[in-house]
Write a structure and sequence with these properties.
The protein is α/β, with parallel strands linked by helices. It has eleven helices and 13 strands. The chain folds into two domains: 182 residues, 3-Layer(aba) Sandwich (Rossmann fold); 50 residues, no CATH class. The strands form two sheets. Strands 2, 3, 4, 5, 6, 11, 12 and 13 form an eight-stranded mixed sheet that branches. A five-stranded mixed sheet has the order 1-10-9-8-7. Strand 5, helix 7 and strand 6 form a beta-alpha-beta unit. The relative contact order is 0.12. This is Methyltransferase domain-containing protein.
């Protein structure tokens, strides 16, 4: 069994064939990249063959295109397939730290699951710094990830839309089973080991089989929202969209003044609610009565009434 990193290096050509299985133009249209002018910057993280970036250029978009991936083999394949932007062969955080004023940054193909909690938390902060005001960040996750925190991480994986994929290219048929097997490493932290089985069959019927092990960190929507909030990014649900087998969620960067306003408003509400919780029952009753609210249990809006009464 190979480590998954070998799929992106020694077997990069194999991965490039598997990954060329979606409507990249549709996804870019949903991200509204084609509406941006030539002064705008588009960044594709964990780019691999950089199909999104290459499609942008093919469709005639003349803005600044940057692809980032740590694999030199992937950079070579991307350029072989027509990529003509700026390909930074580097760790995502390191490369993105050199970029400012990006209008759109995206992480496609569920790549976020391949990095751990601490890395993702830091990455969200670097993304926020790299975006221009009102810039947008898109991240693709499994539809099954848009769940509550109590959802089981191990189950009937064969029912996932992406479980079995088959691609036919130049007389070669490639079947990919992802996951082929699963093993829970840490249920509390949602960490799994998934094996990936890839079978290549040529016209003569000869088969080659490859199995890779993938350590995956599954993130719920709640967890990603928390990372975004800490990085001062806000959800942009109007820009969310489904793909053939996944779901892109969007976050926007507000101007500093708007972000500060929202941040301190939330902080104030949490503090006032905490003050309310720690006060005596008699004090709570008086505050509720004076606020004019007919409530049995206080909630966030009540803190604003409390604030006005203090």
């Amino acid at each position: 069994m190979h480590d998954l990193n070998n799929l992106y290096t020694d077997y990069a050509e194999l991965y490039a064939i598997i990954a060329d299985d979606r409507d990249f133009e549709y996804e870019l249209t949903q991200m509204e990249v084609f509406k941006l002018d030539s002064s705008s910057t588009f960044v594709e993280l964990f780019a691999g063959p950089a199909y999104h970036s290459t499609t942008l250029k093919t469709m005639g978009w003349d803005g600044n295109i940057i692809a980032i991936d740590i694999s030199k083999a992937m950079e070579n394949i991307a350029k072989k397939r027509g990529f003509s932007g700026n390909y930074l062969c580097s760790d995502a955080i390191t490369a993105l730290s050199t970029i400012t004023q990006a209008q759109v940054i995206c992480i496609p193909r569920y790549s976020i699951v391949l990095v751990d909690h601490d890395y993702v938390k830091q990455l969200f902060n670097v993304i926020a710094n790299a975006l221009c005001n009102d810039g947008c960040f898109f991240i693709e996750i499994h539809k099954d990830s848009v769940v509550n925190e109590q959802a089981l991480i191990c189950g009937d994986w064969e029912n996932l839309d992406i479980y079995r994929r088959e691609v036919k290219k130049q007389g070669i048929t490639i079947e990919c089973l992802w996951p082929f097997t699963t093993d829970v490493v840490d249920a509390e932290k949602n960490i799994l080991d998934m094996s990936v089985k890839i079978t290549k069959t040529d016209d003569s019927g000869k088969q080659d089989e490859f199995i890779f092990n993938s350590r995956e960190h599954l993130y719920s929507r709640t967890t990603l929202d928390n990372f975004a909030s800490e990085a001062r990014l806000v959800p942009a649900p109007d820009l969310n969209f489904d793909t053939s087998d996944g779901h892109f969620i969007a976050y926007k960067k507000k101007s500093n003044s708007a972000v500060d306003s929202d941040y301190f408003k939330t902080l104030r509400e949490k503090a006032l609610n905490r003050i309310f919780d720690l006060s005596t029952n008699e004090t709570q009753s008086k505050l509720i009565e004076k606020s004019g609210l007919d409530v049995e249990h206080h909630d966030s809006p009540l803190s604003l009434h409390v604030y006005n009464l203090l």
